[in-house]
Amino acid sequence: MIVRHLLAAMVAGLMAGIIMTVVQQARVVPLILQAEEYEGAPASPGDAHQHGASLPSSSIGSLVAQFSPISPAMAHEHEGEEESNVLFGLDRLTSTLGANIVAGGGFALLVAALSLLLGAPVTAANGWIWGACGWLAVQFLPAMGLPPELPGFPAADLAARQGWWMATVLASAIGLGLIAFRRELPFRLLGLLVILAPHVWGAPPAPSIETAVPAVIASEFAVAALGSALVMWLSLGVILGYLNDRFEKAA
């Protein structure tokens, strides 16, 4: 049984990563390329060092740092390299696809493990609910404090952002679990309080809010990045549930 769940999770993660890459290429990547045109132009002379320090946060390194596929700006930790050598000698598209497949596979395995531990199987009927909860916990709720970043945006200390992001994801997952799996009102209220706790504490603030990137591009990027992540999570949940149902019938 465990082997079937692992196989279903791996296939679902692979397909979700491919779907997300297609969506990103259509909307997210063009905004990143557009924002890159403003990278070398700080909002004011005194801000130049702050913008330069913030560039790695929107690179492929932030994918690992945030354990999230919502910021696929790839080329900035490798500014001295050719554009066709973004990550391990791969181009931008291949790097994005690889990162999304790895992230999708990891998230699918996590969902499968949680469903087994909680005794709540992921099916074709409720797969979208699992996907929506995953998106809320990993993408949307953390983005309320740390929204997806474009190249050239100032950012707080990386370690502080990592710590707050991980704490927010954990609190969101626990809170959503209490709300979804416990019917008692006190537990559901406790879940809501757990979800709100990191936001009450507050995300690490950026040293400056000034940037040369137009606000309209930043807002469009945030919507597009979160939207592409939602497509990935819903696809992951539905595909995982469908495969679980098929394997269950075959057994």
From TrEMBL:
InterPro entries: CbtA_put (IPR012666). The chain crosses the membrane at residues 97-120, 127-144, 164-182, 189-209, 221-243. Keywords: Membrane, Transmembrane, Transmembrane helix. This is Cobalt transporter subunit CbtA. It comes from Gellertiella hungarica.
